[in-house]
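Retro notes, item 3 of 5
We never archived the inputs for the nicotinamide-adenine-dinucleotide complex last cycle. Fixing that now. Sequence and ligand:
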Amino acid sequence: MEKLTGQAIIVTGGASGIGKETALKLTARGAAVVIADFNEEGANQVVTEIEATGGKAASYKVDVANGDEIKALIDWTVEKFGTFNGIFNNAGIGLVKPFLEMDPETYHKVIDVDQHSVYYGLYYGAKKMVELGVKGTIVNTASIYGSLAAVGSFNYNAAKAAVVMMSKSAALELAEHNIRVVGVAPGFIDTPIIGDDVETKKFLAEQHMRGELIQPEKIASVVSFLFSEDASAINGQTLPVDDGFLSFKIK
Ligand SMILES: NC(=O)c1ccc[n+]([C@@H]2O[C@H](COP(=O)([O-])OP(=O)(O)OC[C@H]3O[C@@H](n4cnc5c(N)ncnc54)[C@H](O)[C@@H]3O)[C@@H](O)[C@H]2O)c1
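Structure as it came back at the time:
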C-alpha cells in the first residue's frame, strides 16, 4: 500500500483499541502519529511500542471534549513534526441508561465526548490545513448505532448519527480546499469499551455474520486505507465495517 512518509496524523483515543491499532498501521506506513488521549500512561506505552518498530510517534494528553485543548493539540503537532495532514477523530465513550433515566448529565457527557469532539477536530483541523496549504484527510469514528437505535443508547445514538452527518456536511465545504472527510462505522469491536462480561460479549458476537466480535485491527486497516490517496474517491461517506451487522435482523 502507498506510503504516508512525510505526513503527520493525529489519532485521538490512540491509547487503546481502534485508535491504538490505527496508530500502529499508520506509522508502519511511514506517517508520524500523535497519540492523543487523556490516558497519558497508555498513550506513552503506544509510543514506546511504535518506536520499537522504528516508527515515529509522540503522545499528547488531551480531553477531546475541550475545544481549546484540541486546538492546542493541533498547534503542537505542527511544532513537533513540522506539518499536519490528518486527524482521526476517534476517542469515544458510552454511558448506557434507559431513556427515562437519561438525565442531562449523562446525555451531555456522551454528546461532549463523542460528538462535540468531532466538531472541534474538524473545525480546528481544517482551519490549520487551509492555513498550511496542505492536502488533508479527516476520518471520524461513527458506529452502527449512528443509524440503528439501541435500547439505553439515546445519547450515543444521537452523537454517532451526528458524526455521520457532520462528515458529509464538512466534506461538502472542504473539498475545494483539498480536504477529504470520511467516516467509519464499526460493528462490535473487541475493545475495553464493550466491557468484559462474557455473556454480553457472546451475545454481541452473535449479531455479526461470522458470529465473532470484530478485532480492532480490522477497523484500523480500513482507516489506514481511508487516509491514503487510494481512497481519494471516497468523500463524505461513512463506511460500515460491521461484518454484516446492519444487513440483517434475524440470522
Ligand atoms: N468497540 C466497539 O464495539 C465500537 C463500536 C462502534 C464504535 N466504536 C467507537 O470507536 C471509538 C474507539 O473506541 P474503542 O472501541 O477503541 O474503545 P477504547 O475504550 O478501547 O478506546 C477509547 C479511547 O478513547 C480515550 N478517551 C475517552 N474519552 C476521552 C476524552 N474525553 N479525551 C481523550 N481521550 C478519551 C480512552 O482513554 C481510550 O484510550 C469510539 O468513538 C467508540 O464509540 C466502538
